[in-house]
TrEMBL record, chain A:
PANTHER family: N-TERMINAL ACETYLTRANSFERASE, N-TERMINAL AMINO-ACID N(ALPHA)-ACETYLTRANSFERASE NATA
Protein name: NatA N-acetyltransferase complex subunit Ard1
UniProt cross-references to Gene3D superfamilies, sorted A to Z: 3.40.630.30
Family, as annotated: Belongs to the acetyltransferase family. ARD1 subfamily.
Automatic annotation (TrEMBL), chain B:
Gene3D superfamilies assigned: 1.25.40.1010, 1.25.40.1040
InterPro entries for the chain: NatA_aux_su, TPR-like_helical_dom_sf, TPR_2, TPR_rpt
TPR repeats: 84-117
Highest taxon of source: Eukaryota
Matches recorded under PROSITE patterns: TPR
Extent of Basic and acidic residues compositional bias: 613-633
Region spans: Disordered: 609-639
This protein's name: Acetyltransferase catalytic subunit
Coiled-coil regions, chain positions: none
């Protein structure tokens, strides 16, 4: 598994995943428009071969200028192949896309729509990613279902690079490699200790 | 324009000349109806006027009168063969016909009569890059630039041209010249400017001068908005320059942003020079996995390079993590390791042992300690479920379908509503060769979660594998719009759903519905052809947006379009079908079916065949792809008299690919064979 920025070569795979997973579909040209207008905004997850797209987020900067002129992003589409779900891919893809929208395009917030009945997506947006429900869009979808219009403020995103500069101590890592078994605290890792390491769920 | 004498056939009185200018303006602003009216007033007085005729024809092609429009355009050109307008119009017409070669010729003629015309030059350049006449493209863009150097896009476009032919020195100097001359400072949040700075930086790096690329990068780093790209470029350049410690730090910064990107880990390994040293590599990943708890890559990568006991320990930890958390995707993650028998063995041993401790829990009601605290520490009732679920996929993968079936039944017995379990069961049945049962089981999975399109798509696919077209189509149509002709099939064509169209074509081929099969394979080709054409509008668009690197990616990707599996698979299907049409014409196929039967039996069989066909055809008729589809059964394709030529249409785009040479040879062989000799069928 691999998560990275989407490239042109990923488009047909994104389109395929979209057609497998969601009823709202787009032709190749539309993806191409996204890619050549906001090349930084979309991300993909691939299988181990690195070529098969198993999840994607297609995001953009909203084109209609807001009345108040505040630039904001929009998530056009997000989905993960069922066999790869529930391992955190969607959440990670979204986080990367939001950061790009904020950094590259100055988006102050991001908006999206989700079907009222889509429990998984609702949990992801509201609970994991902390989006707010702005309103209910009546009969938003082709089949008549209502949508939640959701939003998230991006100005509160952490400056990851600055945090990294401030807190990250690289020496431990280099030492770990050079002396093989040092832990963060500089202690030697014994066999039993490394075995006893437990997973955090 | 120039002070050249206006030739007699082109002359218009001042009033009409003004009207003509009005026509041009109306055309540009898409006011076609009005434009036509004005054109007609000119033609009343000058019925032979070539340029007016051509313009009127062009506008008609936009108002649903293509054929008549085409005639007028030709007539106009004939009446005024030295008019650049007439040639330009004819070029535009050819372009909309996708006849790029002809269009380019027309533009070149037009330029003969008006060498400085910027619009025509620009249109010519678009065609040249579409046809990959890159030298022509560069020379047109040079001319455009010399005419309008104040426009940034003109510099970008020429630099792109040089980059496409890998002349990076020239590409850079063009961008540099623009920067030097740039009067207005870029706005601080100008993404276009930011993109162009990165484009130039990319060019420097491509030229091989990594050191200078890094220097340039540091200079622009503060202005560039794409922080991620700066970090990625910096890490790469540092690594290439051998500045390992800084490179390591740069990659760590990237991992900190995205701890699931393989390329970053690869970079870090290289920077720390641990790639060929397993103990060091292991220590590195142990440290990273600890720091980035959510990272899958940090835990997964060691599974590839560790072996023996170390692998066993690592995979136990990895797998038990998934099983305890109840994540259904454990198997797809470990699947890539199944090329290594000893790893498969180790995984199996662990999973079985793990299961035995769990069943211990289940039967004793208390946690068993015989296998160590670790294995049972997080065991819950669902852990049992996910473990048997894993084992089912494991045994199916290694070809033991019976054992796999036992495990999946256990999973289903434990949780009869688990969609995933039925999906796996369906796959096991498919691998055992029972395609009908596989389809029914996948449909069971679908019925448990009617909202999920993924399982719906799978059910559709499994029905097609079992040759059940009706069921497949009605299933997939549950998620399509269905407001046009042909239920979901039409929609899926429109949405360029290649997997579906290909599967359906292959199903028809298996069922000997040759016409339908060919029709679907042609649809796939049409989709891919459209993907080729789609790039056209982006030649100009991407240049305007400044997204030059993405655009160059696009051009290179399009160049490999037809070598990709989504095309080659359908092409192979189509060619094989045409070869069999050539080898065994329809009459021979019917004859073969009737061979050895008595006269009476023959009649009966023929009658039944006809009746079945008619019934079937009626049903398939209902599957028109659109209202305009006048051959829903593909009869015209099936009744071809030149199957080998038709096969060539599919072969042409892949003729230079080593992997597909054999298909070409099969076609050639038959072309050269004497007509009466029957060649062995290949498919
Ligand atoms: C919605 C979807 C993209 C989630 O993908 P995913 O990779 O499985 O999501 P993640 O693993 O990142 O899960 C994110 C969160 O949602 C939760 N979640 C995921 N699937 C869930 C489900 N079926 N029910 C309840 N919660 C669920 C996860 O537990 C996780 O929560 P946590 O952070 O509290 O642990 C995926 O289910 C999907 O592709 N569905 C079909 C297409 C779709 O609906 N797209 C969204 C359209 S708006």
């Amino acid at each position: 598994m691999d998560i990275r920025q989407a490239t042109i070569a990923d488009i047909t795979g994104m389109q395929n995943a979209n057609l497998m997973n969601l009823p709202e579909n787009y032709v190749f040209r539309y993806y191409l428009y996204h890619a050549t207008t906001w090349p930084q905004a979309s991300f993909v997850a691939t299988d181990a071969s690195g070529t098969k797209i198993v999840g994607y987020v297609l995001a953009k900067l909203e084109e209609e200028e807001q009345k108040d002129g505040v630039p904001h992003g929009h998530v056009t589409s997000l989905s993960v192949m069922r066999t790869y779900r529930r391992m955190g891919l969607a959440g990670k893809l979204m986080e990367l896309a939001l950061r790009s929208l904020y950094e590259c395009y100055g988006a102050k917030f991001v908006s999206l729509h989700v079907r009222k009945s889509n429990r998984a997506a609702l949990h992801l947006y509201r609970d994991t990613l902390k989006f707010d429900v702005k309103e209910i869009s009546k009969a938003y979808y082709g089949d008549g279902e209502d949508a939640y219009a959701m939003q998230k403020d991006l100005e509160t995103l952490d400056d990851l690079d600055a945090l990294f500069e401030a807190t990250s101590d690289d020496d431990f890592l280099i030492e770990a490699v050079q002396n093989l078994n040092l832990t963060e605290s500089g202690k030697l890792v014994t066999e039993t200790e490394s075995e006893a390491k437990t997973e955090t769920a | 324009m120039s002070a050249r004498q206006v030739p007699k056939q082109r002359y218009l009185a001042p009033k009409e000349a003004a009207s003509f200018r009005q026509v041009l303006k109306l055309y540009e602003t898409h006011q076609y109806k009005k434009a036509l009216k004005v054109a007609d007033t000119i033609l009343k007085k000058y019925p032979e006027h070539g340029e007016t005729l051509a313009m009127k024809g062009l506008i008609m092609t936009f108002t649903d009168q293509r054929a008549e429009g085409h005639e007028l355009i030709k007539l106009g050109l004939r009446n005024d063969i030295s008019s650049f307008i007439c040639w330009h119009v004819y070029g535009l017409f050819n372009r909309t016909e996708k006849n790029y070669e002809e269009a380019a010729k027309c533009y070149q003629h037009a330029l003969k009569y008006d060498p400085e015309n910027g619009n025509i030059l620009r249109d010519l350049a678009l065609l040249q890059v579409q046809m990959r006449n890159l030298d022509g493209f560069i020379s047109s863009r040079k001319q455009i630039l010399s005419q309008r150097p104040e426009i940034r896009q003109n510099w970008t476009a020429l630099a792109i041209g040089y980059a496409l032919v890998k002349d990076y020195a020239l590409a850079e100097s063009i961008l540099q010249k623009y920067e030097d001359a740039m009067i207005e400072a870029a706005k601080p949040d100008d993404i276009e400017h930011s993109e162009l700075l990165l484009f130039k930086n990319w060019i420097i790096h491509q030229s091989g001068d990594v050191k200078r690329a890094l220097e340039d990068l540091e200079k622009i780093a503060d202005v560039v908005l794409d922080k991620l790209c700066v970090l990625e470029y910096r890490a790469l350049y540092l690594l290439e320059l051998g500045r390992s410690e800084e490179a390591a730090r740069a990659y760590r910064k990237l991992i900190n942003r995205n701890p699931d990107c393989k390329a970053y880990f690869e970079g870090l390994e290289k920077a720390l020079k641990v790639t060929d040293d397993v103990p060091k590599r292991k220590a590195l990943y142990a440290a990273l996995a600890k720091q980035y708890k959510r990272s899958n890559v940090a835990k997964w990568n060691p599974l590839v390079f560790l072996t023996g006991q170390e692998f066993k320990e690592a995979v136990s930890e990895y797998l038990s993590g998934f099983l305890a958390r109840g994540v259904p995707s454990a198997f797809v993650n470990l699947k890539p390791l199944y090329t290594d028998d000893s790893k498969v063995q180790a995984i199996e041993e662990f999973a079985l042992k793990y299961l035995s401790t769990l069943t211990g829990v289940a039967s004793n009601g208390s946690s068993s300690t015989s296998n160590g605290a670790k294995d049972t520490a997080e065991a819950t009732p669902t852990t049992y479920l996910w473990t048997v679920f894993y084992l089912a996929q494991h045994y199916s993968k290694i070809g033991k379908q019976d054992v796999a079936m036992e495990y999946v039944e256990k999973a289903i017995a434990h949780t009869p509503t688990l969609v995933e379990a039925y999906m796996v069961k369906a796959k096991i049945l498919k691998r055992s060769g029972d395609l009908q049962a596989a389809a029914d089981t996948m449909n069971q999975a679908r019925e448990i979660d009617l909202q999920d399109r993924f399982v719906n798509s799978k059910a559709g696919k499994y029905y097609m594998r079992a040759n059940k077209n009706d069921e497949a189509v009605s299933t997939i149509s549950l998620f399509t719009k269905n407001d046009g002709a042909g239920k979901g099939v039409g929609d899926l064509h429109e949405m360029q759903c290649i997997w579906f169209v290909t599967e359906q074509g292959e199903m028809f081929a298996r069922q000997d519905k040759i016409g339908m099969a060919l029709k679907r394979f042609h649809s796939v080709k049409k989709i891919v052809d459209d993907w080729w054409t789609d790039q056209f509008d982006f030649h100009q668009y991407a240049t305007r947006q400044g997204t030059a690197r993405t655009y160059i990616d696009l051009i290179r990707w399009e160049d490999s379009l037809y070598s990709q599996p989504f095309y080659t698979r359908a092409a192979e299907d189509a060619i094989k079908t045409y070869l069999s049409l050539h080898d065994t014409p329809k009459s021979a196929r019917v004859a073969a079916e009737l061979a050895g039967l008595s006269e009476e039996e023959r009649k009966r069989v023929m009658k039944k065949l006809k009746r079945d066909r008619a019934k079937e055809n009626k049903k398939l008729e209902a599957e028109k792809l659109s209202e305009k589809d006048d051959d829903p059964l593909g009869k015209n394709l099936e009744n071809t008299t030149k199957p080998l030529e038709d096969a060539m249409v599919f072969y042409k785009p892949i003729k230079d690919l080593e992997a597909w040479k054999w298909l070409g040879e099969e076609i050639e062989k038959r072309k050269n064979a004497p007509v009466e000799a029957k060649t062995e069928a290949t498919a």
